[in-house]
Give the backbone structure.
Amino acid sequence: MMTALHQAIIGHLATELPGVHIGAYPLLRQKITTPAVLLEVQDISPAPKRDRGTEQLCLQVRLAARCIVETHDAAAGLKGLELALSVALLLHQGRRFGQRVGPALITSIDQDHFEPALLGYLIWRVEWSHELELGASVWDGGGLTPGEIYLGFAPRIGAAHQDDYLQVAAADIAGLQNP
């Protein structure tokens, strides 16, 4: 799943940012082709309050895109920032990149001064997260589909009030709207 997500994000960024080197997990201490956007997973943690009863492992994956430009240009700071904002815009509005993950949620856009292996470059980092579920769901879609639906109103519910229930027709359900 992570490989497919990486490939989908890289493909999307490469299509939308022509002329920018897009990659993941760079070999550090080597020359980097710039401008560049390098993707990596920052951490993975249990997804907060996310258990749909499927017995899947629900995780929150935090990713970062390091937007890298060389510092020899007087406008490097602005170029790096513009690249980071372009990446953020491409992630905006909850992109899922065609994968079975939760929508992208941007968590920060900031300058990255803390990667010693990338000294000599100006780096802006865009962080975002996705929720995902690993493993098979116990709900495989099989089982029984109800043929008849009955509606009861509290407190007149339960077996003792079975005759008080109203049968609901499929046409009635189709016409219901949420307020």
The two ends are 38 Å apart (CA to CA).
